[in-house]
Structure formats: structure tokens, C-alpha cells
Amino acid sequence: MLRGSKVGLRARHEDDIPVLQAELYDDVVTHSRANGQPWRPITPGSKDSQLVVDDKEQGHVPFSVVELDGGTLVGTATLWGIDNHNRSAHIGLGLLPSARGKGYGTDVVAVLSHYGFVVRGLQRLQIETLSDNAAMLRSAERNGFVREGVLRSSAWVMGEFLDEVLLGLLVQDWKPDPQG
Ligand SMILES: CC(C)(COP(=O)(O)OP(=O)(O)OC[C@H]1O[C@@H](n2cnc3c(N)ncnc32)[C@H](O)[C@@H]1OP(=O)(O)O)[C@@H](O)C(=O)NCCC(=O)NCCS
């Protein structure tokens, strides 16, 4: 397990999937805002669920997020789009509603940055988020990510096009402890 100050990132367990599906995936608005793909219902137990991990998929590393104190499941975290030529990857995360606003998101970004830079030897990490997602923007910026641009009307979300912000962090600018 990878450890932050409040949360740990571990492999996805079979019994994580129904919890993540009910509390995260089945929230249509949150899913539509966070995933960039159309929501559709997934049959319980389906192998097509995005939450089922394909261990052979080298460029996509999904974790389950747990509280260090007690091990309760609190969300998902993913290093995706890993490009070993350009040595870059993207970060994605989603916390269960009861786990938001406690500093866990900031901690998850710190742990994924450690995984990307130290374990995987990457040079650049990138986050795309809706321009009104204040908690995600702040979680990224607390870890040293800088806003590199606005992707105008790039996301179709529940009936409207919204802007996304592109944030990046280079390994030489990374400070392992989140900064204020
Ligand atoms: C986005 C998300 C991962 C952030 O994680 P979090 O644990 O809620 O965020 P934190 O508690 O670490 O807060 C980070 C900062 O944002 C601020 N913040 C938290 N919730 C906020 C809110 N609703 N509005 C404004 N600011 C907020 C915090 O005060 C903190 O700022 P500070 O460092 O200056 O004190 C989480 O809210 C979530 O899972 N949301 C739904 C899914 C999603 O949007 N995923 C990202 C898709 S790109």
C-alpha cells in the first residue's frame, strides 16, 4: 500500500466494487462531471464496470483509497494515460460523499504524485478538471500543480458545454509535502 498522511492507496478488492458503484458511480451528476464519458447504468457484478480492474492494462493504474486509521474505503484514485516515451501521465480521483472536504483529496494527489514520479519515474503529471471544481483545483494546487490553460467548452456535462482547466506538475518542481 502507498501511504499519505491521512489515506492509503491499495489494490481494488472485489468487495470495494458494490460500495464504489452505489456511492460514487451511480451518482449521475458527479459521474458526468468527473469522468468525461456518458453515464449509463451498470448491472451489479458486470465485468464491464469501469471499477473492475484489468491487471493487464499497463497504462492505467487504478487504486482504491482507504483511511489509514481503520482502513475504511473512501474512494478511487487512478494514474491513467501513462506514456513511457514522453514520461507523462494523468491523475484522476473520486471520493465518496462522506469523505469529501477532510483533506483526503489533497492527500490522494500527493500520493499519486509520489507514485508517478518516484515509483514510475515520470517527468510530468497532468490533471484536467471542470473550471468550477474548486475542491479539485485546490487539491492540485496545494501539491504544486499549476494552471496551464483553459480548454474552452471541452466537456459536455448534463446538457451544457463546460470549460476544463488543465493543470501540470513537472518532477523538478515537485515538493513531496503539499504546500499551501
Ligand atoms: C474533488 C475531490 C477529489 C477533492 O477532495 P476533497 O477531499 O473533497 O478536498 P480537500 O478536503 O483535500 O480540500 C482541498 C481544498 O479545497 C477546498 N474545498 C473542499 N471542498 C470545497 C468545496 N466544496 N468548495 C470550495 N472549496 C472546497 C478545501 O477547503 C481545501 O482548501 P485548503 O487547502 O485551502 O484548505 C472530492 O471533493 C471529490 O471526490 N469530488 C467529487 C468527484 C470529483 O469531482 N473528482 C474530480 C474529478 S476531476
TrEMBL record:
Protein source organism: Planotetraspora kaengkrachanensis
Domain N-acetyltransferase: 7-163
InterPro entries: Acyl_CoA_acyltransferase, GNAT_dom, Ribosomal_N-acetyltransferase
Name this polypeptide is given: N-acetyltransferase domain-containing protein
A molecular-function term among this protein's GO annotations: protein N-terminal-serine acetyltransferase activity
GO cellular component: cytoplasm
Pfam families attached to this UniProt entry: Acetyltransf_3
PANTHER family attached to this UniProt entry: ACETYLTRANSFERASE, RIBOSOMAL-PROTEIN-SERINE ACETYLTRANSFERASE
Positions in coiled-coil regions: none
